[in-house]
Write a structure and sequence with these properties.
The chain has five helices and eleven strands; from the N terminus they run αβββαβββαβββαβαβ. The chain is α+β, with helices and mostly antiparallel strands and 226 residues long. The chain has an eleven-stranded mixed beta sheet, sandwiched between helices. The longest helix has 15 residues, at 171-185.
Length: 226
Amino acid sequence: MIPDKLDNPAWHSLNETHVSYAIGNDEIKFYRPSICRFGGINSKQADLVSFLNNHVSLKSFFVIGEKPQGTPGLIIEMELVCLQMISAGQMKIDCPENIVYLNDGHKKQLADLVNLVQPGYFEEDTSLMGDYFGIFKNDQLVAVTGERMKMFGFTEISAVVTHPGFTGQGFAKQLIAYTANKNFERNNIPYLHVAETNAVAIRLYEKLGFATRRKISFWKMRRTME
């Protein structure tokens, strides 16, 4: 049975595997801004504005799960509705490409590629959240997949990115399978989030054995006053 803690993944990641990256208290926790602009709320009475004033300086950020309470000083800029998908088990996929573990020496190439394809989600130190793997062509990083929100027994697969000039070659499928299988070897269940409108990606994940657990929203919020 998949635990309800996946309904609030940022909160539980920040209280478990990623506790060293957390800023917060018993009601609200955020990642350090250089890591990720995600926050988790564990109380409907939580005062998000006071928390931001006292703990972390962010103009815009994401809260995942339940819709945050309306608060003077904050506006919701966007609701990104995603499917939260869970992998059923090890993936038997051929991986003919040479898949490389990305270390600190690849940090800039990794950030540049992810921000080229998925701007707005990858910060200076996001790569510290987990392992990242890539495929190179002529010394150019052309495809990556990595790990983001992690809690005991569960790892989010994220940053599934292929350079626009190298799509259609099966790189994403190989990297997803490779990353997922690494987690199964560690007794972690892979899960992921994909925009409900991204039919192409959803079909790929389903072919790889992911099944939808639920819909979940990423609420992009912005401060309107200091």
